[in-house]
TrEMBL record, chains A, B:
Annotated localization: Cell inner membrane
Molecular-function GO terms, alphabetical: metal ion binding; potassium:chloride symporter activity
Domain of life: Bacteria
Keywords tagged on the record: Cell inner membrane, Cell membrane, Ion transport, Membrane, Metal-binding, Potassium, Potassium transport, Transmembrane, Transmembrane helix, Transport
Membrane topology: Multi-pass membrane protein
Pfam families linked: TrkH
PANTHER family: TRK SYSTEM POTASSIUM UPTAKE PROTEIN TRKG-RELATED (PTHR32024:SF2)
Family note: Belongs to the TrkH potassium transport family.
UniProt protein name: TrkH family potassium uptake protein
Positions with a binding annotation for K(+): 113-114, 222, 320-321, 437
Organism from which the protein derives: Aminipila butyrica
Length: 489, 489
């Protein structure tokens, strides 16, 4: 179980070179907007980071390439932490953010596609930084697709339940023989979504800058906006409709699009997928109930307005985008409880969405259903099926264990952060919105507020919670176990 | 699957006769305190209820006695509902409570050992009613012991994880060959606890009436008090210490006492039981952390006071007694979050405590631990053991399914009750404290307040939540499934 140090170091080298390359785009934006100090900050980050990455990659001779699960977890976790740290450098160098904890929080929030901000007034930030902030949201979405499509299966781990051979739904290997091809297909869809949304948002009246940043936020389900009031800033039905559509599209298993449209049947294949079907049912039911509640309580003047804000917020929270078109913290309790419930669920597997994912809840519902049937008919043997395929006991056990671990991490993190003395709803919802990579919570971290209230240690804790949630807990949590490090020779 | 109607009707008959007989005690108390109207109310309940029960039992000819699981669930659930309804009659007849929903809420709260009250000023109630309220708390505790020790195993159902043959810990059949003997042993302990606590509380200064009612509340882990301020009314260290000790003793698996002290080893056998060990560890850790938090935040004047209130409240909430010696809703958030977390756990299996029970959390922790080990060593095969015995996959699956069903019922009930518009913490904690049979919650249902704020429909919903929680969900939940009734011919 000796750690494969060479492969680890080379992975960090690649990451640093990639980070350096991606920063050329915000560098260009800063120059375009004449923000000299910001441009210098990016240049001053790109050069040393790329050079150091180049050294690590080319000086270290490649060793044997097979990684153990342990090496894989360590590499993935350290890469995400390092990427957050590197992304934070221009924030500090440019003087946009003075506190390194704020910068690190902002960047782990961005790369994990959480989209929670600790900057009280984002509108005061320079364009280069705002662009970088949105672009890392988009990069993070792509990063999680790599993680789900390539990293986890190559480690032979079924943390992504779609990667295991006995897994439900369209597995990766069904579509293309190679994992790298699957990854390419995912990026293709991701790019198509990005380009088309930018065009549509510009058609709806946004300039190229706003259209780009808000597209990065919605297709990556990150939800960062360059306005303090998020999407509510525009107060535009067409913009809300476009963003709702793209959040909804991005919350779907991206493989499913290929799987469905490369075979006969097209959209019927899509609807035949159980996870997709329940994703749509949840959105329809919850947005319907919230609309009704908002309408009956006269929260908005008519049914149309109620539905407008309800559908946007339902899709935004379920897909874990966290964009805001209305302050849901002012809604009646019934609607707030529905939003709170959505925070646990999240989007579909193999999407950029966070949360526990619809498919896991589907499995749990089937478990509950089975347990009731078994009690009424003690001799019945009922298997758990998804898309007409039996799930193995191991797969079911992985899913239930992950959900319990999720509850444990939420409980532990909420207890720790509660030392700050803020009310229970603020602290619990802050942890929930971070572990689910959503963005806004309730009360002091409600949709109209931000995470600037927290201390540096709280921000660091929440950054870790975001990273843990993004990496489906295990990859990150194991780093905190003494057992993990004891085995290192 | 035809319902065995005769056995069902005869069970109701027995219940009514028992209820009539137990009401002789509060009848005597009313006469003793010269409360004529209350005495009449009890007499006016006892006569028709007993007579009707007698008729049902002796007129219906016994059929075959083997009950199906379905018959069993129906019988148990209807018995608890009927018992709550019968208990409520004297409340209304005596004029103590005018609203039938209040009376039903009070009695299901009492019989399920929840101890939540919807009566704003309990001190204004007559002695006969106060006694009956406390006595039903005690009866409910005994009722749940019958349910756990006799009813569930006779149905061949492992809802009580101690009843199944592959179950962890000291199983029933190890101690005594017959279930009825086990039940007798449980009542013996229950009676010893009751008599000794009454004597100790009188020694600490209570009169016989207060000592009896508060003993009924603590050994049954119901927590009803005849004072609005619960135990805080006495402001007495010795009384708090006695009640803490008895709550703690009553939260333990009562079989374990027999099992431990009938064999060589005595107290060492007790400590060797994993559930007992973790029950003590939880109490020690949580009360220690709360004391520290209360002390460091200067909530109380010194360490001694901090510990005094912390240990009482920790034991009271973990054992789901819900007695109050200090308003924990005014404590700092860290302590409140710990109390909130305890609300999920509950006491040990085969005790009078509610909640999900320590042993189920123990199994879940072991599941999480295993899932981490499997990820680090993908080929490892690790079984889940309790007290050195392997748990079968079915037992583990029953436990995980019950916990998910618990979460589902809490979510559903909280959403339904949230239509009332009270804040999220009030509604969520009301549901949690009812399903866990605890008593007090947070905010508007905090320890210094009561459930009188709720509407009749809310009270009915919460009464059902208490019953569902008390019967470990399945027995009660199945009644609400159309499937359950479709099979009835
Ligand atoms: K987000
Ligand atoms: K209670």
């Amino acid at each position: 179980m000796n750690l494969n140090r060479k492969a680890f170091v080379r992975a960090l080298g690649v990451l640093m070179m990639v980070m350096g390359a991606t920063m050329l785009l915000p560098l260009a934006v800063s120059i375009l907007y004449g923000e000299g100090k910001v441009a210098l900050a990016f240049a001053g980050t790109i050069i040393p980071v790329s050079a150091f990455g180049f050294l690590l990659y080319y000086v270290v001779v490649p060793g044997h390439t097979s990684l153990t699960a342990r090496d894989g977890y360590l590499t993935v976790s350290i890469c995400w932490i390092l990427a957050s740290f590197i992304s934070a450098i221009p924030f500090v160098l440019s003087g946009a953010v003075s506190n390194i904890f704020d910068a690190f929080f902002e960047c782990s929030s961005s790369l994990t596609t959480t989209g929670a901000t600790s900057i009280a007034d984002v509108e005061s930030l320079p364009h280069g930084i705002l662009f970088w902030r949105a672009f890392t949201n988009w990069l993070g979405g792509m990063g999680i697709l790599i993680f789900a499509a390539a990293v986890l299966p190559s480690l032979g781990i079924g943390a992504n339940i779609l990667a295991a051979t006995e897994a439900p739904g369209p597995t990766m290997d069904k579509i293309t023989p190679k994992i790298s091809d699957t990854a390419k297909n995912l990026y293709k869809i991701y790019t198509i979504f990005t380009v088309s949304e930018i065009i549509l948002l510009m058609a709806a009246g946004m300039d190229l800058f706003d259209a780009s940043t808000h597209t990065f936020g919605s297709v990556g389900t990150g939800g960062f906006s360059n306005y303090n009031n998020s999407i509510a800033h525009f107060n535009s039905m067409p913009i809300e409709m476009i963003i709702t559509a793209y959040m909804l599209l991005s919350g779907v298993n991206l493989n499913l699009y290929f799987y469905s449209f490369k075979r006969r049947g097209g959209i019927r294949n899509l609807l035949a997928d159980e996870e997709f079907k329940w994703y749509i049912i949840i959105i329809a039911t919850v947005s319907g109930l919230i609309s009704l509640n908002l309408w009956l309580t006269h929260t908005y003047e008519n049914w149309g307005q109620s539905f407008r804000f309800s559908i946007f917020q339902t899709v935004s929270i379920l897909t874990t985008t966290g964009s805001v078109s209305a302050n849901y913290d002012l809604w009646p309790t019934f609607s707030k409880m529905l939003i709170f419930t959505l925070m646990f669920i999240g989007g579909c597997s193999a999407s950029t969405a966070g949360g526990l994912k619809v498919i896991r809840f589907l499995v749990v519902f089937k478990l509950i259903k089975r347990s009731i049937q078994v009690r009424l008919h003690p001799n019945a043997i009922i298997s758990i099926k998804i898309n007409d395929k039996n799930l193995s006991i191991d797969t079911v056990s992985e899913i239930t264990s992950l959900m319990f671990l999720h509850i444990l991490v939420v409980t532990g993190a909420t207890l720790l952060i509660s030392i700050n003395g803020y009310d229970m709803v603020t602290n619990l919802s802050a942890v929930l919105t971070c572990i689910g990579n959503i963005g806004p919570g309730f009360n002091l971290v409600g949709p109209a507020l931000n995470f600037s209230i927290f201390s540096n240690t709280d921000k660091l804790l929440l950054s870790f919670v975001m990273l843990a949630g993004r990496l489906e807990l295990y990859a990150f949590i194991v780093l905190f176990l003494p057992r993990f490090w004891q085995q290192n020779k």
